Amino acid sequence: MKNLDALLIFARVAEMTSFTRAAESLGIQKGRVSTVIRGLERDVGATLLHRTTRSVQLTEDGRAFYSRARDLLAEVQELQSMFVDNGAPLQGRLRVGMPTELAQSVVVPALPQLMTAHPELELELSSTDRHVDLVQEGFDCVIRLGPIVDETLIARPLGKLRMINAASPSYLARYGIPHTLDDLHSQGHQMVHYTQTLGAKLAGWEYPDGDGYASLPLPGVMQVNSVQTYHAAGLAGIGLIQAGYSALAHHIESGALVEILPDLRPEPLAASLVVAHRRNLSQRVRAFMNWIERVLEPYFD
């Protein structure tokens, strides 16, 4: 492969499924397109396109090659414009990972704004509560909540997400509304316990104590290891919960949950945009970082 022109021509043919339309869009002769594609297939040692009298389709090898070529062309475009911030729409693939609840409650509802501003951006969004491997799984960036313990990663702090105490109206009707920590015991309150590992030592009820935070032992009849199940248990009136305001805001607004002890909120949860140590912040990642920071800003403490 002597230059990137061949990749550009191949990508245009793949996208337009036509040698003729690809040539017209690039302003070159159809014969040159055919010659370049034949040379490219010879260089890579594989047939990339099925040609018929009516259309051109990618082969299985061609689909794999096109995916990599598309990313490479996008990276070249970024390299050429890495020092230019002209507000032009972003192009190419961006693979992002984030916690499931954050994606469902906050990010996905705001995505139409991003996609309208950058219609050629190909977003791959992974929502999972496990810590993905950025390098092995090919992520451009991920949103992490809590401390970053891996020193091989580069983390850009976005802010601290507000945490609140909440309960359902039906639960509060049974036990009463607590106004102090003493009320939690005197009124017989119980909490839903969240733990990543079932059977592990329970953390208790977190509250501010001087310059830090402490934990108050509080009974509970249920232990869960899923954030979504934890919220569902609070909504069902099983017990008190402590969770991110970003995930509970619409439940608070609808009245399905009520915030309690607003002066004794748990410690805010740090949110960071994380990239692999071997990569710089590309133009796409920088733009996404600025956008996600604006989206999360209303939920920062």
Keywords:
about 300 residues; alpha/beta; Arc Repressor Mutant, subunit A; D-Maltodextrin-Binding Protein, domain 2; 3 domains; 5-stranded mixed beta sheet; 10 helices
Helix/strand/pairing category: alpha/beta
The number of helical segments is 10
Shape: elongated
Low-confidence stretches: none
Main sheet summary: 5 strands, mixed
Strand order of the largest sheet: 4-3-5-14-6
| Proportion of helical residues | 25-40%
Percentage of residues in strands: 15-25%
CATH fold category name of the largest domain = D-Maltodextrin-Binding Protein, domain 2
What is the β-strand count? Answer: 14
Q: How do the SSEs run, as a string of H and E?
A: HHHEEHEHEEEEHHEEEEHEHEEH
Rg from Cα: 26 Å
Distance between the termini: 53 Å
Mean pLDDT rating: 88
Which CATH-level-2 architecture of the largest domain?
3-Layer(aba) Sandwich
Give the domain tally: 3
CATH top level label of the largest domain: Alpha Beta
